[in-house]
Amino acid sequence: MPGTRKLGRTTDIRKSMLRGMVTFLLENGKLDTTVTRAKEVRSLADKMITLGKKDTLASRRQALAFVTKESVVTKLFTEIASDNAGRNGGYTAVYRLGPRRGDGAEMARIVLISAQEKAEAEKKKAEKKPRRSRKAAAETVTETKTEETAASVAEKVEEQAAAVEEAAEEAVVKETEETVAEAPAESAD
Q1: Where are the alpha helices (DSSP H) in the chain?
Q2: For the chain, how many structural domains are there in total?
Q3: In this predicted model, what pLDDT tens digit does every residue of 44-71 receive, in sequence order?
Q4: What angle do CA 80, 117, 136 make, to 5 degrees?
């Protein structure tokens, strides 16, 4: 039942805080807060999205009475409600983040499911490469390293072969020059 947690605040301050948090969540798609606040915000945000799915004048006025920005209400009724049209509740998810550094309060991130699905879809489109198993990836890396090693060894062998050929040619040229130099001397004797 929403609204049963007092959160250490008076009624007016608590309602104002929750209104602001729901508005921020609907505007940005995610919100970092404590776990207990996230649970309260979750139920209220789900109610606002359900109002957005009705899309009547009365539901729009109820949403405007709770959400603090008109632009967020417009976004709620146009984008968020249409993204969650096939869903019957559960429009948000709460993920625990661990303790807060200052006072050790347990922190959580509340996320709109439709926004999360969009982010995952964009991430998948960005990857575009099919996922391979670790074994296949390791084999590919091994094959690549083997190919690189073979290529580098082949280059070294070619360089050494070229050096040997050059040395052999130089030796042949020297022998020919020596033979040519000795031949006229012998013919002169």
Answers
A1: 11-28, 35-54, 57-66, 70-75, 81-83, 113-127, 134-188
A2: 2
A3: 999 999 999 998 999 999 999 999 999 9
A4: 170
- Whether the model pTM is above 0.70: no
17 plus 45 within the same structural domain: yes
Structural tokens at position 139:
């084999």
**Domain presence at residue 3:** no
- For 45, residues 6+ apart whose C-beta sits below 8 A from its C-beta are 22, 25, 26, 91, 92, 110, 112
Number of residues in the chain: 189
- List the strands of the sheet with 106-112, edge to edge: 30-34, 106-112, 92-99
Question: What is the span of the domain harbouring residue 33?
Answer: 11-127
